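Figure 6 in text form: structure in, sequence out.
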């Protein structure tokens, strides 16, 4: 892990922010469930249009409250991505490194998408990225890794198509997103996937396709940034050389892969403090 000793590590932040929800932050997730069927791909996904189905998300105009989410490394120099709504309005943001310790991070919000860039003094190896211009097909599988409900967990999904996320209230905007049908999750994870926001959505080659940003539990859907939104958010960064395939991810091993990435701190928990 690059320059880890140089990280500014301090204690007490995590406990004061999120209490008992982080007590399991260093534990491994249970094995992910197996899923029947192979990946069956449909037609190429077209560009976003004004006619895409819309889903409305209402946010509160009240001051932001302490929250947790997920972030992942995109550079060993200490660059991370997370969801904008996880860290927007935070007085202080930190990444949990285990043992009740966290490292402080600076924030830069994307203006056009639910994405934020975090910066720390050094960090772990980056996750590989899907090459710009990669064409998605309906039915493509994604693996969403992170810390749902404040503890290690993951979900698997298949791509349905495009939708428009209409955020009303704080951070109001219309944003093109990808809609995925959930097809599996960590064995004992029930209910909301809150806390998975900001985590990577990996393809079968272990590369980041998008950032997980929302869910619709009653519809069984997970929403991520659109690939073009992610590309635009990272355009100012020099991430050349990060498009080689990573490890193979499939329905039988994605829980184990997620555990390894969390253990190596390449996928980490985010803590947002507001007071």
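Output sequence:
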């Amino acid at each position: 892990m690059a320059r880890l000793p140089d990280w500014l590590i301090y204690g007490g932040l995590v406990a004061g922010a999120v209490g008992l929800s982080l007590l399991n932050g260093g534990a491994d997730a249970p094995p992910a469930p197996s899923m029947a069927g192979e990946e069956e791909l449909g037609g190429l996904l077209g560009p976003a249009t004004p006619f895409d189905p819309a889903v409305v998300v209402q946010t509160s105009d009240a001051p932001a409250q302490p929250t947790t989410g997920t972030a992942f490394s995109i550079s060993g120099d200490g660059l991370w991505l997370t969801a904008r709504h996880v860290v927007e309005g935070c007085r202080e943001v930190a990444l949990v490194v285990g043992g009740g310790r966290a490292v402080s991070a600076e924030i830069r919000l994307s203006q056009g998408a639910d994405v934020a860039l975090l910066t720390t003094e050094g960090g772990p190896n980056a996750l590989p990225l899907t090459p710009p211009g990669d064409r998605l097909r309906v039915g493509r599988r994604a693996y969403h890794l992170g810390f749902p409900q404040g503890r290690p967990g993951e979900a698997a999904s298949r791509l349905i198509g495009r939708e428009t996320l209409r955020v009303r209230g704080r951070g109001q905007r219309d944003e093109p997103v990808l809609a995925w049908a959930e097809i599996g999750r960590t064995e004992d994870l029930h209910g909301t996937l809150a806390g998975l926001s900001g985590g990577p959505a990996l393809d079968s080659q272990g590369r980041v396709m998008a950032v997980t940003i929302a869910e619709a539990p009653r519809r069984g859907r997970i929403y991520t940034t659109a690939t073009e939104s992610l590309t635009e958010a990272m355009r100012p960064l020099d991430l050349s050389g990060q498009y080689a395939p990573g490890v193979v991810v499939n329905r039988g091993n994605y829980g184990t892969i997620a555990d390894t990435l969390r253990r190596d701190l390449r996928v980490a928990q985010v803590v947002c403090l507001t007071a």
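Caption detail: Residues 254-263 form the longest helix (10 residues).
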